[in-house]
Amino acid sequence: MKGQNKLFIAIIIALLVGVGIGGVVHVKYPENAEPFAKNIKLLGTVFIRLVQMIIAPLVFTTLVVGIAKMSDIKMIGRVGTKAMLWFISASLVSLFIGLILVNWLEPGHVTKLPIQDVSSADELLKSSKSFSMEDFVKHMIPKSLFEAFATNEVLQIVIFAVMFGVALANLGEEYSKPVVKLFDIIAHAILKMVGYIMWFAPLGVLGAIAAVVATNGFEIFKVYAIYLRDFFFAIGVLWLVLLLVGYFILGNRLFDLLKRIKEPLLIAFSTTSSEAVFPKLVEELEKFGCNSRVVSFILPLGYSFNLDGSMMYMTFASIFIAQIYGIEMTLGQQITMLLVLMLTSKGIAGVPRASLVIIVATCSMFGIPPEGIALILPIDHFCDMGRSMTNVLGNTLATSAVSKWEGQLTEPLDKI
């Protein structure tokens, strides 16, 4: 937690320094604003390329390990099926809410930024004109895993990883165990790298903000205020939907459940970590009356496959970056993006700031300048508060709902 706080403070300092430098250039040296922005933006480029560097191996190893270990579902059978149906439904609803609200509220249309990467714009224009099912299939099915790795084709990597993970799961533990263990070690090593790479984020923020302020002035801060306002409104809508579904399934017991998890929700909000409250959540759900076997199976699975707040944020942030660069996406492209996010987000769930890694990959795939992610980094900590708290709520409701469906929801243990 101390490391996260230091990183947050470093990003805020970098933001302020970037604003100061960019403001001085914009006001006193306007004739030098463009070359200055071009050079200092290289700091952001370094950070973005470091993130892009780990996307392919991270998606591949974590997804293979996750699916190979999911042979447990066969043992639990019916419970696992119901859990996965909840997770998929909740993920799709969360993604659609983000997509609908970002298109309705249009937070990125407050200001327009010039597109620096002309090749990205050309690629987007070509894909929007010739977008077809054939193009989608070619993007989805790899002809070579190594080509997919070399070009960072995340969706192709996901397809191969899913098939490989399923094959491992059905191979028998004697053969699969050493392979899964190797990939698990590689995945943990890459996760360690994510922590190191995030320390380059302050430089990326400084470069991106200084460049934006130097060329666009202080109007960019109006964007931050509107972005946070619209994002938390969207989170509120998602909470309303989740609680209505929870009430439909649990009835008045929903209010007792909310009282019990108020502390985990607050911890997740203040620490931006849903993992930090996992032990407390297990304890409270068992006291609430959920079957301990159901809790011990569904809650860990939910932490990998049921991140409702993060899912909503991915569509919201991706379309926001497109809006801020003045890139109009067709409905077909946005629906395709939603389905891509549905698949790719399952690959690196639980990774620190996983949402940002996925957004960078998705922006690159759809021709949206990936450097746009640096614009929302300074306020990502505040968005992460809302995301983490929503993830905890979603997993709590999923565990309670499946317990109820299985007839395993008893009276609260502390009231018996």
UniProtKB/TrEMBL annotation:
Its main location: membrane. The chain crosses the membrane at residues 7-27, 47-71, 83-105, 154-172, 193-214, 226-250, 319-344, 356-379. It is a multi-pass membrane protein. One of its GO terms (cellular component) is plasma membrane. Pfam families: SDF. Keywords: Cell membrane, Membrane, Symport, Transmembrane, Transmembrane helix, Transport. This is Na+/H+-dicarboxylate symporter. It comes from Chryseobacterium rhizoplanae.
